[in-house]
Design brief:
Lignin degradation and detoxification of lignin-derived products. This protein is mainly β. Helices cover 9% and strands 37% of the residues. The chain contains six helices and 33 strands. The N and C termini lie far apart (51 Å).
Length: 572
């Protein structure tokens, strides 16, 4: 069976490299070859957790189809929206060099693709390879609309580690019995927190810990002695997650689609939006071992799903009905386990971190509770102390405009955003322990579509500081259009006198988990013109306003200017 699987995988990869390859001009930013895909966003009937319902999917697949390419390839994906909801697709982690129009976040770079409409995304994997993923970027639609995007090295370029026997994509997700679009509307209208997911899923399967799910379980058949590459992706909405395999060690070799120094651990933690590649060797006695996905919840007083999703890492020769050996995951609030993993992440080789800084930003991130202004407070003010839940950066809760920020910027249309996002909070205090907490009297944030404009080529440092209003929490902050060097992080309030920075081999990431009650420092060079969303990847926090936009101006060179918009760009 294994040899048949390998032959099939080899045949499919050869077919992929030949059949979908069309030579194009070598001029950058066109790729070496072009991959064509067609996505149809449509509803599909699924039965999970004793319940049959319609969910929104791509091509009737859950998770959706995997996009395969090689470094420097051009990817063209026609997306047709046959669902009843507005939709867009974001290509998470792809830097979109000179292709900002195709980045995908709704009302940031494009208006949504309306039901019955289509839009073709085109971008080049310029100097990028590794494990990425795609997901919807409207409402909470990405709860079911997601899939892998795997970019292999150029032909003849090896991995910097021993070639694995097989590769497998493992997508961590969350599943709700309720329609996720309606759920978001209800939660926002209530002013209160969201309910926990009904289940965690591994490749769409909850596994045997959940009702009616004994056979709804994902399984990898493994050959004793062989080494496997697992491409882990957290596509969940509102939860960060631990992942581990019973009695097996995981060696991290890539994080956020950039190679790392090999780091061996018993578990990993991924926030929503993060990807990690691990090597696992089947070096244990023949048997059936659990792969487990459980919660990491660093906030206080938040309800969450605490039943682990289970998949099987099953050795050939194991009895099919044998009991699986359980995987031991940390306690749900084990901050030390998370720090230990982060401490182990280093770039594979020394890197060129910007040493001189042109733009310094200090950005507080956290939750707010707004005063109730509704005439029906029982319905609309179900937050803490009868307030309305919100979230903010530098105490400004981001409001999406009703056309895209990119269109307003490109066409110089006034009135949709202001360029006065503050580079630092209005006042400095003990952010972690002395934050305002007289809820809701002093926990309000200002609302606005306020952006920060950066000069092309400027070297940028951002300090993210978690705050203790309502609760401290680990926030996975994602920046579109860029990867960045994570040069430092720590607990407590950021102090430039005592902060330790790694300027030699820091990890190069696109989503950083800012530690609970702590800070993280990132650096990058603003050399990709466009309008780039920077936000918390916990979806409820984004709905509440935890984000802002960085606008990078055009440079002077030919390949430093934003091209004109595509003809089929959706209209609002």
């Amino acid at each position: 069976m294994a040899s048949f699987t390998n032959s099939l995988l080899l045949w499919l990869s050869l077919l992929l490299l030949c059949a979908s390859t069309v030579p194009v001009m070598a001029q950058w930013p066109g790729g070496r070859s072009t991959r064509f895909y067609e996505f149809k966003i449509q509803t599909t009937r699924v039965t999970k957790l004793c319940n049959t319902k319609e969910i929104v999917t791509v091509n009737h697949m859950f998770p959706g189809p995997v996009v395969y390419a090689q470094e420097d390839d051009r990817i063209i994906i026609k997306v047709t929206n046959q669902s009843p909801y507005n939709a867009t697709i974001h290509w998470h982690g792809i830097r979109q060099r000179l292709s900002c129009w195709f980045d995908g976040p709704s009302y940031i770079t494009q208006c949504p693709i309306q039901p019955g409409q289509a839009f073709t995304y085109e971008f080049t994997m310029f100097q990028q390879k590794g494990t990425f993923f795609w997901h919807a970027h409207v409402s909470w639609l990405r709860g079911t609309v997601y899939g892998g995007l795997i970019v292999y090295p150029k032909t003849g370029v090896p991995y910097p580690f021993k070639y694995p026997y097989e590769e497998h994509i493992i997508i961590l997700g969350e599943y709700w019995l309720q329609d996720v679009v309606q759920l978001e509307r209800q939660v926002i209208a209530s002013g209160g927190p969201p309910p926990p997911a009904n289940a965690f899923t591994i490749n769409g399967h909850p596994g045997p810990n959940y009702n009616c799910s004994g056979n709804d379980v994902y399984k990898i058949d493994v050959v004793p002695g062989k080494t496997y590459l697992l491409r882990l992706i957290n596509a969940g909405l509102n939860m960060e997650n631990f992942f581990g395999i019973a009695n097996h060690k995981l060696t991290i070799v890539e994080a956020d689609a950039e190679y790392t120094k090999p780091f061996t651990t018993t578990l990993v933690m991924l926030g929503p939006g993060q990807t990690v590649n691990v090597l696992v060797t089947a070096d244990q006695p023949i048997g059936k071992y659990s792969m487990a996905m459980g919660p990491y919840m660093s906030a206080q007083g938040v309800a969450f799903q605490n039943i682990s999703a289970i998949a099987y890492f099953q050795y050939l020769g194991a009895l099919p009905n044998s009991l699986s050996l359980p995987a031991k995951l940390p306690n749900f609030n084990d901050n030390l386990a998370v720090k230990t993993i982060m401490d182990g992440l280093k770039s594979l080789n020394p890197v060129n971190v910007p040493k001189e800084i042109d733009t310094n930003l200090f950005v507080t991130i956290g939750l707010n509770v707004q005063k109730c202004r509704s005439k029906t407070p029982q319905k609309n003010c179900q937050g803490v102390n009868n307030g309305v839940m919100a979230a903010s950066m530098n105490n400004i809760s981001f409001v999406k405009p009703n056309i895209s920020v990119l269109e307003a910027f490109y066409k110089k249309i006034d009135g949709f955003y202001t360029d006065d996002f503050p580079g630092a909070p209005l006042k400095f205090y003990d952010f972690v322990n002395g934050a305002p907490n007289n809820i809701p009297n002093n926990t309000n944030a200002a609302n606005g579509t306020r952006v920060k404009v950066l000069e092309y080529g400027s070297r940028v440092q951002i300090i993210f500081q978690d705050t203790g209003t309502l609760t401290t929490e680990n926030h996975p902050i994602h920046l579109h259009g860029y990867s960045f060097y994570v040069i430092g992080y720590g607990t407590g309030n950021y102090n430039p006198q005592t902060a330790n920075f790694n300027l030699v081999d820091p990890p190069y990431m696109n989503t950083i988990g800012v530690p609970v009650g702590g800070w993280a420092a990132i650096r990058f060079t603003a050399d990709n013109p466009g309008v780039w969303f920077m936000h918390c990847h916990i979806e409820i926090h984004l709905s509440w306003g935890l984000g802002t936009v960085l606008i990078v101006k055009n440079g002077k060179g030919e390949l430093e200017r934003l091209p004109h918009p595509p003809a089929d760009l959706p209209r609002c």
